[in-house]
Fold this protein.
Amino acid sequence: MPVNVHIHAYRQRRNGHLVDVAEHDRGVPAGGEKPWHDKPHAEIRMHIADAERSADKANDGYGEVNPTSGALGRYQLKLIALQDIEWKDADGAWTDRAKMHGVDSDNAFLTKPAAQEDAMTAYIDRNDEQLRANGSKTHLGRTYVGPNGKSFKVTEAGLAAAAHREGARATKLALDKLKAIAAGNRRAFTKPEGRAIRRMQTFEDVRYARS
């Protein structure tokens, strides 16, 4: 199990303001190992929890509910995400797959960190599959300039974070528009595409490793 996870410098919104978080190592806290420490992409998970503003909440954010979007838990998984990994059905009911992880209600999900980590593993893998299928991975290593004027390189971590935030489709559309703009064509971004690009920029240097 990892003892330390290296966190690259990044920007985070706190109390309505963007603040710079310095590069640092995050070790095992006084309470011992955390549920995400032995999971694939531990660093990605920690950064996403920070970006979703749940990491510093009580119980590491596992009990958080977004009153506007209905997103649940430490990783703020929305209904569409839980449906995509087949933990919820078309009517929003928890499925047998979720029940295999001890989840049969929103409250059960919020009180089971291990189940949330399993759901996150499934969602990362599902997004990776969709990003590969829709051609987003062909942009890896390319450098683009976002609508904020900031140049960035497309990385595995950036794609994973963008897909987690806005889905694989919006990530793909954003990348195609960035490529078109780089070729000298004018394009306008939707709000979801703009948010996907900001995630790609923020997560550009985050380490992407399954173990």
Summary: The chain has a mean pLDDT of 89. DSSP finds seven helices and six strands in the chain. The two ends are 9 Å apart (CA to CA). The first strand starts at residue 4 and ends at 7.
